[in-house]
Amino acid sequence: MNKEFQTELTKRMEAAKHMKEEDKLYRYNGLLYPTIMCSPENLKALETFEAREDDVMLAAYPKCGFNWMIRVLHKIVAAATGRTDENPNDHPKFPPMLEFLDPAKQKTLAVAPSPRVVGTHMPPQNFPKSFFEKKTKVELNSTCHMTLPVNEQIQFSIVTERCVTICLCLQFPWGSYFDHALAWEEHMDNPNVMVVTYEYLKENLSEAVQQIASFFNCSLSEEQIQTITQESTFKAMRENSKNSHGPMNNVFFRKGEVGDWKNHFSEAQSQEMDAKFEQFLAGTKLGAQLQYDVYCK
């Protein structure tokens, strides 16, 4: 995250404190977005955004490891292309997600050199159509611990007890986790979609880096893979987060522990999540890959 975006994000968070609750979210094409980050003008302009076949695209529901993985992707692309990790697209002013880009920044991204590293919290049906028309490869980051409470500045003062319920319903930025997951279930057989779980990254980071690089046609030496792995452990990322994310570092990089949800869920909330997982994802390919019974019970 570049310093300009850090400053802008801090300013917007401060402005959000003075907004009415009903003004903090709005709906666009059936999906809720946070007003302070994603203006309607941004989303309207994205409808005609031109994807490229060699774009490196990351999709993840909020708090499913996006900020960790986008840094890993930047490092992979930097190593494969010889660019600097700090400025992988040669345009340091880009926010991390497409929906955060205003129309002017979208035009700048349109002429950025390939491969471009881009990300989004949007489900596939809300993507710019060109990403599927150009058969752009997409990495989907998913996890079992998707409903952990987040810094209240970002989640609009949602308290822990309400976090689970809101994540399960539609009245939440970018919709419910389960709707997001089911939308991607339809793409599980798409060869241009790669699913990587947070839990797999934690346990097999070196192997994951190699697989992700291969998926995006980024040729890396064994030495490069090991260097990226060492620099991309959650511990290393978090220790560097003051430089990469400034005063927002504790918002984006929490504990990074598999199973940390147990410290926040009540027994009733855990049972509610089990029931919803059974209702929506039991028997699905994505559900099997998440290994819910292993990591989330």
Description of the molecule:
The chain has 297 residues and is of the alpha/beta class. The chain has one domain: 3-Layer(aba) Sandwich (Rossmann fold), CATH 3.40.50.300. The protein has helices spanning 3-16, 40-46, 66-81, 103-110, 130-133, 160-168, 177-185, 198-203, 205-215, 222-231, 234-239, 241-245, 249-252, 267-280, 285-290, 292-295; strands at 25-28, 31-34, 56-60, 117-120, 138-142, 193-197. It has a four-stranded parallel sheet. It has a two-stranded antiparallel sheet with strand order 1-2. A hairpin with a 2-residue loop joins β1 and β2 (31-34). The protein is globular, with a radius of gyration of 18 Å.
| Main pleated sheet | 4 strands, parallel
State the helical fraction.
40-55%
Number of domains: 1
Task: Please tally the helical runs, counting DSSP H or I stretches of 4 or more residues.
Answer: 16
Distance between the termini: 34 Å
Estimate the global geometry from the Cα principal axes. Answer: globular
User: Ranges with pLDDT <50 over ≥5 residues?
Assistant: 87-92, 145-163
- Sheet with the most strands: spatial strand order: 4-3-5-6
Q: Would you count the extended β strands for me?
A: 6
Query: Helix/strand/pairing class, anyone?
Result: alpha/beta
